[in-house]
């Protein structure tokens, strides 16, 4: 068994490769572009990269429908080029994580093609979840009433096999039958293939969905989009299967980060708590529901108290028991500055949001372009969108609305907004490619781009760098306790990080004060705090150079979307 590296001290940068950087001019992001930008990632101050799927795929769900787990999609390069990126990342001190997508494959995977043939002697016959149809008279019906997350009924009839297969997501994403030991051996083989190459761990996609209730009863028909969820979430054999995969990870000292939608804190602790944990961290969805109900497609507008409640629930629930994965943006959600920030106060709210979550207890994850404050895109036709979930919502859930209203709802909710090409420069195609981009570039690249922000000491990019550097060099921010103040405030988010250094007889407290208000706002420090005994160490209205020169902020007063970070020390 290899000793695991300390992921708690780290931060990670997520690459959704198709839109990251095009290195060969064909309009599609690739590993050649990633190689060219590794120094940029290192300069940002992160310690590792998480790649969304880079495997061969028909792209029904842009990489999350995999047709070959042990190769690289030709659009992105070759295994040789991936090894070149991996080696260079390691030279720069960056760990590399891959997405492990094992709830489902593509329907073009050789396993599924063989499984469709059926037959008792077919080794792939039970690699997927097949069921006989139900009949109402002569009418053929699916095995139950479950709906998929992405695309209508969760069952698709296969004429060749004359049975239905389960797809919790898109029709072209059939669910694997993890109850089959052969399938689990395939998963272990995939893990070893990449770990032997030198990969440092995995982010495991919807990992809490891989064990289904074998009875598969009907769900709640009055909530069709998730009516089967209780029967395929946190299933009966999940711990057993995760422990098998954990044994492989332990051999290599690899980190495992599980994505677990709709999982409670109590259930999460059974996966990530204690020395016998089967995952190291867990990516929850609660903090992404501050402007919606269970999905971005049921939008109700941003509510700070809802966001704080989610942070509080997970921070307090895991404190001293397990480690937290911190994030506010990824490939599955629209851009956070458009959701939780304010585009009129774009720079201020975008930078405040960085400190809002990075300085909490846990390991921060950043999504490409988040560090630039990239925003949502608004296209004028549903035909211009690509995301299968957006098209399904437009054509199913929003049918009662006018075309204009339906598009408005897509604008605030689609994952495609997170998948516009990264804005590197103010030049042609935002510097993403010399060819024709595979998807639309956000027109605001003329002023939101990495080149311009690198030069601007007050930029969102440089503020992210400052937040990450502050965290990395502070034991208080790395390991200190978390405490929230004034939880009922609808405009201010305030929390404390506290660390006691018994060996040196010191106590350090860091107070983070975030304004979610478009107007000037006063605040009071909590009982036991006196700003005269503290020192301002970070403020998004004050550049690093200005702070070194002695510029400070007015205590207990916040400008629109200002964040103030104060440090207090005392001898015990």
Notes on the structure:
- The structure is a single chain.
- This protein has an 8-stranded parallel beta sheet with strand order 11-10-9-3-2-1-15-14, covered by helices on one side.
- The chain folds into 3 domains: 288 residues, Glycosidases (TIM Barrel, Alpha-Beta Barrel); 57 residues, Oligo-1,6-glucosidase, domain 2; 94 residues, Golgi alpha-mannosidase II (Immunoglobulin-like, Sandwich), CATH 2.60.40.
- 28% of the residues lie in helices and 17% in strands.
- The radius of gyration is 24 Å and the shape is globular.
- Helix 8 links the parallel strand 10 and strand 11.
- The two termini are 41 Å apart.
- The relative contact order is 0.10.
- The model has no long low-confidence stretch (mean pLDDT 95).
- The chain has 572 residues and is an alpha/beta fold.
- Helix 5 runs parallel beside helix 7 and helix 11 runs parallel beside helix 15.
- The protein has 17 helices and 22 strands.
């Amino acid at each position: 068994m290899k000793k695991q590296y300390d992921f708690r001290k780290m931060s990670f940068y997520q690459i959704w490769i198709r839109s990251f950087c095009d290195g060969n001019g064909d309009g599609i992001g690739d590993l050649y572009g990633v190689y060219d930008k590794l120094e940029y990632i290192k300069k940002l101050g992160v310690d590792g990269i998480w790649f969304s799927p880079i495997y061969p795929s028909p792209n029904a769900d842009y990489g999350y429908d995999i047709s070959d787990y042990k190769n690289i999609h030709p659009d992105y390069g070759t295994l040789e080029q991936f090894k070149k990126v991996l080696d260079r990342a390691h030279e720069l001190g960056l760990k590399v994580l891959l997405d492990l997508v094992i709830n489902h494959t593509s329907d073009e995977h050789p396993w599924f093609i063989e499984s469709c043939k059926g037959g008792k002697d077919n080794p792939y016959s039970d690699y997927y979840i097949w069921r006989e149809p139900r009949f109402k008279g002569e009418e053929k019906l699916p095995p139950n009433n479950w709906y998929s997350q992405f695309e209508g009924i969760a069952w698709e009839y296969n004429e060749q096999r004359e049975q239905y297969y389960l797809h919790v997501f898109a029709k072209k994403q059939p669910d694997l039958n993890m109850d089959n030991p052969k399938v689990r051996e395939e998963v272990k083989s995939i893990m070893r293939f990449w770990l032997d190459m030198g990969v440092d761990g995995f982010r495991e996609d919807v990992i809490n969905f891989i064990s289904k209730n074998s009875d598969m009863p009907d769900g709640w028909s009055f909530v069709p989009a998730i009516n089967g969820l209780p029967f395929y979430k946190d299933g009966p054999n999940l711990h057993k299967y995760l422990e098998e995969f954990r044994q492989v990870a332990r051999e290599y000292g690899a980190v495992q980060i599980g994505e677990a939608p709709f999982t409670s804190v109590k259930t999460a602790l059974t996966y990530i708590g204690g020395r016998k944990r089967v995952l190291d961290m867990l990516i929850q969805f609660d903090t992404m529901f501050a402007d919606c109900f269970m999905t971005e497609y049921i939008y109700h507008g941003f509510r700070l108290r809802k966001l704080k409640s989610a942070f509080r629930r997970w921070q307090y629930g895991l404190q001293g028991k397990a480690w937290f994965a911190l994030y506010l943006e990824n490939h599955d959600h629209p851009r956070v500055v458009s959701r939780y920030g304010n585009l009129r106060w774009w720079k201020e709210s975008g930078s405040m949001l960085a400190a809002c979550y990075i300085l909490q207890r846990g390991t921060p994850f950043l999504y490409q372009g988040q560090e630039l404050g990239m925003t949502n895109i608004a296209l004028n036709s549903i035909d211009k969108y690509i995301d299968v979930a957006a098209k399904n919502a437009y054509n199913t859930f929003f049918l009662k609305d006018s075309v204009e209203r339906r598009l408005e709802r897509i604008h605030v909710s689609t994952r495609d907004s997170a998948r516009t090409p990264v804005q590197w420069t103010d030049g042609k195609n935002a510097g993403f490619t010399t060819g024709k981009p595979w998807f639309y570039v956000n027109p605001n690249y003329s002023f939101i781009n990495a080149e311009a922000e690198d030069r601007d000491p007050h930029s969102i990019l440089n503020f992210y760098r400052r937040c990450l550097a502050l965290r990395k060099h502070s034991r208080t921010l790395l390991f200190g306790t978390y405490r929230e103040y004034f939880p009922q405030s609808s405009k201010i988010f305030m929390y404390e990080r506290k660390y006691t250094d018994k060996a040196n007889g010191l106590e350090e407290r860091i107070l983070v004060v975030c304004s979610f208000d478009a107007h000037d706002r006063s605040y009071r420090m909590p009982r036991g705090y006196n700003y005269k005994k503290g020192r301002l160490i970070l403020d998004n209205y004050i550049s690093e150079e200005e702070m070194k020169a002695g510029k400070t902020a007015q205590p207990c007063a916040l400008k629109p979307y200002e964040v103030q970070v104060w440090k207090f020390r005392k001898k015990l």
